[in-house]
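tool=predict chain=A
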Amino acid sequence: MPPIEAFEPDRFELFEPPFYRFEITRRQAIGTLAAGWLVTAWVADAQDQPSGERVEARIHLGDDGIFTVFSGKVEEGQGPRTELAMAAAEELGVPLERVRVVLCDTSRTPDDGITAGSRTTPGTVPAVRRAAAAARGWLSREKRLIENPRLREPGEWTILGKGRWRTDAREIVTGAHRFPSDIALEGMLYGCVLRPPAYGARLESVDVEAGKKAGAAAAVRDGDFAGCAARTSYEARRALEAMAATARWSGGQKHSHTNLFEHLRATAKEKVPPLGGRTHSAEYRTAYIQHAPMEPRAAVAEWKDGRLTVWTGTSNPFSVRAELARAFGLRAEEVRVIVPDFGGGFGGKHTGEAALEAARLAKEAGRPVKVRWTREEEFRWAYFRPAALIDAEAVLEGGRIRAWQFTNYNSGAAGLQTPYAIPDRREKYVPADPPLRQGSYRTLAATANHFAREAFMDELAAAAGADPLDFRLAHLENDRIRAVLLAACEKFGWRERRRQKRAAHRGIGLACGTEKNSVVAACVEVEVDPKAKAVRLVEIVEAFECGAILNPWNTRSQVEGCILMGLGAALREEILFDNGRVLNARFSQYRVPRFRDLPDRLEVILLDRKDLPSAGAGETPIVAVAPAMANAIFDATGARPRSLPLRW
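tool=predict ok
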């Protein structure tokens, strides 16, 4: 047979639009990768023009019998490494043990876009499956690509759809895995960065020589950036303290959490008039909160022969590469960003601050530099989930909602549209001037919008004299939401428990919603301390559906993780700040959920819809927790919580 490069691979359409074609090339051994064949899937525009092409997936078929999947996605605890391996193994028809996955290395992997928005499952997994199906056809048809390789239906799955442990579980539990914080290079220095006293402060002057005299191997100032690097992290901190003593700052914000929501309303870019007439209305508030990942930001940067390599934890590696290239006047191909599996992000690591800081210090020092943010730096200077001020209004007639107006100030439009059937709807997101740095968070603004909408739906149900479940069902035409709502309520025993007399200071509540093409519903029981105005989650039953489930063990883990993260935002999490300075920048002051906060019963119901495309499971399950608890507090106390964390 002639070399594979000697014939033109067949071109064919898998779906319309877009159009796909596949290329297979011979590759020599590189590092740990054996010599073999590289299958590349391309997607082009309707005319199959080169200008519209982009790489969609790559699979290496090694002469050693190992298949390697390359993806630009990153692993931050949500499970894509295992999911992509399962997808490839399924379509290749090989055991999972014969598949390896190489995640984001901008010099080796395709640009699969940012790892966010629950897009790996509906976007990258199908791309890998298409490439794997093409490779399977090529192997079984005497190394000729077949037209329109058929993907296996869920009913045929032998690997997908089955519970699998993470493929890297051994390295994680034995400590063999190296997170970005663990990366170390020969001759590496440790870097520290001078931080301003408050948001918006400008650096007027600083004596970098003071840092060098205190033991720094390198110190630099570039505009508002100043930092130093030394042989140990202790020496770097000591040198930074010497620099900080000479620093002079000007300006800075004067805002406080005590007037946050008044500020958001006053600076709103548009004033939305009320519905008017006989309306029910309520104002809801959600605080700024931090992502609080287990691993703070970290990066190691190395310059060699005018080229820059950075190891860092980020969900957006190709964007970070572009940012580094702009900062140092380099071409994109002169910058390499490698992302080891890292310790959590939850939407909070889309940017590359630590990478840029390490690169600046490494360039000055002429040696590799590691920058590891402290927990306090992570709390103060990483961006926050936006605070939200939400106005909800509705007109009730005959027990039905006839008009609805819902306005989100500041936090965003995700989850803004109500899933309920209402004839007159007006929903709007209005930006405001945020006093703190804000950005992405798990489901973005959908946490705030679902909290306000589902709490308000309970208020309307009470005004209509209806059971909260019946009131929702009367307005729900979305069969998927109805299914999870009924599943959760049946398992929880909603109707029976509504009829029963509850123990003192106990209440039950429910909530439901949809985001990222998946649906969720939760029923909870809470216990309230009326004197301390404190609440404990006693029980939660949550039903979730995200189409055809690819790995039920991982999906269940994602739902449980979302529940616990949502519990933190409901109970206590809130950034306190004054004069532009965060006041509770440590875990002893900013209290994420503890083991004692766990409910007595936590049950997850997964609805596996093999007739629907698979959607991501890493975000949507969080949105039902807080509103269900708010509604349960009302059931127990008769008071309506309208803010997060929950207060009444």
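The domain at 4-173 is CATH 3.30.365.10 (Aldehyde Oxidoreductase; domain 4). Residues 1-18, 48-52 have pLDDT under 50 and may be disordered.
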